[in-house]
Amino acid sequence: MGATWASTPSGSTLSVASNANLLAMGIKVGCAENLGGKIAVVTGSNTGIGLETARMLADSGAKVIMACRSVERAREAAKRASRDGKNDVEVMALDLSDAESVRAFAEAYKYEKLDILVNNAGLNASSGYRGPKTTKQGYDICMGVNYLGHFMLTALLMPKLMKSDDARVVALSSVTTWFGSNKYHYYYKGASKTKGNYGSSKLACLAMTVEMQRRIDAAYPNNNVSCVAADPGFVASDIWRDFNPVVRKIMGVLALSPAQGAMTSVNAASLKSIKKATLYMPFSIRMSKLFKLNRGAAYTFGMPLLSKIFAGFGADAMAPRAKNAETNAALWDLSVQFCKDNGLDAKKCEALKL
After folding, report:
1. Which PANTHER family does this one have (predicted)?
2. Nearest 5 degrees, angle CA 291-CA 294-CA 296?
3. Contact 194, 232 (CB under 8 A)
4. What domain range includes position 192?
5. CATH number at residue 256
6. Buried/exposed 27-61: b ≥16 CB within 10 Å, e otherwise
């Protein structure tokens, strides 16, 4: 959950999912704010939640940069997000599994400021996944794509974010954070030896929402940057593509559509009421209460069955490990070391307050 699928392996969308999702209550699709004059970067936005996020931000007047590994697929997706040229949408290459690509993206970013950064791209290396186990530089693939690449990207773009009068850094979270290990060094260099790398990578994203905000506020007391986390909920989208087809069809009936799942990110990126270092969920109830009672039951039954019944938007408590000061500091050190080992010199790190 907090991860999604949209298509069959052949690429055909399951219409039963989209039809069933029309019944979800409490989620109104679309950005409520006027984002004219704002610039947004959405990673992994050629499909699923990322594409819907990019489209809705663009619909509201923002200039949207779709940062994707495949420029070719992104250009096709951009036709939808741009409404055939009516919206201001641009495509830029970004491969989060390659630190060189992350640096190249930041260097190629030509605008004076950045208002919204949605770190949406994600990889779930479980079930039928047969892709690479490590990034180009040899880091665990889930931690590298979901967290380390995004950390470096955020750090490099932070000077641009600082120039906005209301910047948002939105990290995609997941309820797997309630199960994730905060022994992050186990999921750092080399392929993960366990199946917990996805949950740990998402816990790292959530923990860094807290830690990065704390450090930014300490270094720049009057900053206008809000680091927040957004859990899309139980969504039928592309990240489940390697799972059993029968399971995917069942998910399609119970789950939210990618557009509905994108609303947590869209709201977190745009609403004026958003608070710093906060997790937002697509529910009108506090799911954390269920997870505190019984994590297994909340994950297996609560998320799928309650997604539509209590669909909405609101702040919720994070998994306790996301706020552990000691492990958050250790994660920060690992993240900074990753940046230094992959092309950021000491002077640049110091300038970024890393």
Report:
1. PHOSPHATIDYLINOSITOL-GLYCAN BIOSYNTHESIS CLASS F PROTEIN, PHOSPHATIDYLINOSITOL-GLYCAN BIOSYNTHESIS CLASS F PROTEIN-RELATED
2. 90
3. no
4. 34-351
5. 3.40.50.720
6. beeebebebeebbbbbbbbbbbbbbbbbbbbbbbb
CA nearest 349: which of 138, 152, 137, 145?
A: 152
**327, HSE (Cβ side, Cα atoms, 13 Å):** 18
CA distance 47 to 68: 10
Report yes or no on 3 lying in a domain. no
Catalytic annotation, residues: 198
| Start-to-end C-alpha separation, the chain | 32
CB atoms within 10 A of CB 6: 26
**348 Cβ contact list (under 8 Å, min separation 6):** none
d(CA 314, CA 19): 25
- Is there a contact between 282 and 255 (Cβ–Cβ < 8 Å)? no
Alpha carbon distance 140, 142 (integer Å): 6
pLDDT in tens, the chain (354 residues): 443 323 222 232 333 333 334 445 567 899 999 999 999 999 999 999 999 999 999 999 999 999 999 999 999 999 999 998 899 999 999 999 999 999 999 999 999 999 999 999 999 887 678 899 999 999 999 999 999 999 999 999 999 999 999 999 999 999 999 999 999 999 999 998 878 899 999 999 999 999 999 999 999 999 999 999 999 998 876 555 555 666 666 666 678 889 999 999 999 999 999 999 999 999 999 999 999 999 999 888 888 778 888 888 999 999 999 999 999 999 999 999 999 999 987 777 776 677
Residue 20 inside a domain? The answer is no
Domain count across the chain:
1
pTM (predicted TM-score): 0.89
Q: Judge whether 317 and 298 are in contact, CB under 8 Å.
A: no
Domain assignment present for residue 13? The answer is no
Q: Is residue 59 part of a domain?
A: yes
- Assigned token pair, 17: 């999912």
In the chain, what is the greatest distance between 2 CA atoms, to the nearest angstrom?
A: 54
Residues 124 and 133: their CA atoms lie apart, in Å, by 11
